[in-house]
UniProtKB/TrEMBL annotation:
Active site: K197, K249
Residues binding Mg(2+): E234
Catalytically driven reaction(s): 2 5-aminolevulinate = porphobilinogen + 2 H2O + H(+)
GO biological process: one example: protoporphyrinogen IX biosynthetic process
Protein known as: Delta-aminolevulinic acid dehydratase
Purpose of the protein: Catalyzes an early step in the biosynthesis of tetrapyrroles. Binds two molecules of 5-aminolevulinate per subunit, each at a distinct site, and catalyzes their condensation to form porphobilinogen.
Subunit structure, interactors included: Homooctamer.
SUPFAM superfamilies: Aldolase
Keyword Metal-binding part of the UniProt annotation: yes
Positions annotated to bind 5-aminolevulinate 1: R207, R218
Record pathway: Porphyrin-containing compound metabolism; protoporphyrin-IX biosynthesis; coproporphyrinogen-III from 5-aminolevulinate: step 1/4
């Protein structure tokens, strides 16, 4: 039996009907806010390529974090930009390095009211901009990098991170960090694995956000956008190594991968709506080509619908505040 008995439009007729039968919903706690703190700043600096996003001072970071927590976001993901860089990213593991200081600041500021996360990668701290240390040929040395990641994991845990975000895409990084954390007595600090991370052109605005020094690209360690099955292997390895959560990054161009991952793992799955995704929607809305608020909502719902339990987004505070106020987005 079909039309005219079956009329799917009946359930779309009014806003309450559409709300009642919605298959996917957002909640403030689903959202994680990525934040940037820069050592050399005396005042926050707006990012030109990401309108509304700032490089923070330590003080302005605390204010923005408190605002996000008050809005009900599920967590904060912190990135640090040091004043000085070197080949091995020394500032990443110094207790008084900007990222570790900022973690301590936020732990003191928000207490246990949110989940505090830190990006665990060397790219913000190295003078060459790669995610690891280089060998004598200028190639990223996987195993030498793991030694630095181990130190970084312990430093971030001691600074107050609940979760360390292994984002460098080195082989064995989850196991290395897990072992280092356990060895230092941080058995309760979780590993949030950037398990399927692609070498994407959509990271462009992020380069501005972290003052990236990168020359070239990261295709020898981040995944080829042409590959789908490869993500299953990457994710399985990370889960086997002890990942507590896994992430797909970027989000919108990789919803097929996200759906695959969500269907196969038994740990929480996240997706990162990255800088380029944010910038594209912002730019199109600024030009009047799309409805900004509807586009934000649609983009986030698409990521949830594909299987993400958690979404990292630069709109986290704004959207969480609207949801907490009972507004539809």
């Amino acid at each position: 039996m079909s039309y005219p008995t079956h009329r799917p439009r009946r359930l779309r007729r009014t806003a309450p009907l559409r709300r009642l039968v919605a298959e996917t919903r957002l909640h403030p706690a689903d959202l994680v806010l990525p934040m940037f703190v820069k050592e050399s700043l005396t005042a926050p600096v707006p990012l030109q390529s990401m309108p509304g996003v700032l490089q923070h001072t330590r003080e302005s970071l605390k204010v923005a974090a408190a605002e996000a927590v008050a809005a009900g976001v599920g967590g904060l993901m912190l990135f640090g930009i040091p004043a000085e860089r070197d080949p091995i990213g020394t500032a990443a593991t110094q207790p008084d390095g900007i990222l570790n200081l900022a973690l301590s600041d936020l732990r003191a500021e928000v207490g246990k009211d949110t989940v505090l996360m830190a990006d665990l990668c060397l790219d913000e701290f190295t003078d060459h901009g790669h995610c690891g240390v280089l060998d004598e040929h200028g190639e990223v040395d996987n195993d030498a990098t793991l030694l630095r990641y181990r130190e970084m994991a312990v430093a971030q845990a001691e600074a107050g991170a609940d979760l360390i975000g292994t984002s460098g895409m080195m082989d064995g990084q989850v196991a290395a960090c897990r072992d280092a954390l356990d060895g230092a007595g941080h058995t309760d600090t979780g590993v949030f694995a950037y398990a399927a991370k692609y070498a994407s052109a959509f990271y462009g605005p992020f380069r501005e956000a972290v003052d990236s020094a990168l020359q070239g690209d990261r295709r020898t360690y981040q995944q080829n956008p042409a590959n789908r099955r490869e993500s299953a292997r990457e994710v399985a390895l990370d889960v086997a190594e002890g990942a507590d959560l896994v992430m797909v990054k970027p989000a919108m161009s990789y919803l097929d991968v996200l759906a695959d991952v969500a269907a196969t793992v038994d740990v929480p799955v996240a997706a990162y709506q990255i800088s380029g995704e944010y910038a594209m929607i912002s730019a199109a809305a600024a030009n009047g080509w799309i409805d900004r608020d509807r586009a934000i909502a649609e983009s986030l719902l698409s990521i949830k619908r594909a299987g993400a339990q958690i979404v990292l987004t630069y709109w986290a505070t704004e959207v969480a505040a609207k949801l907490a106020a009972g507004q539809e987005i």
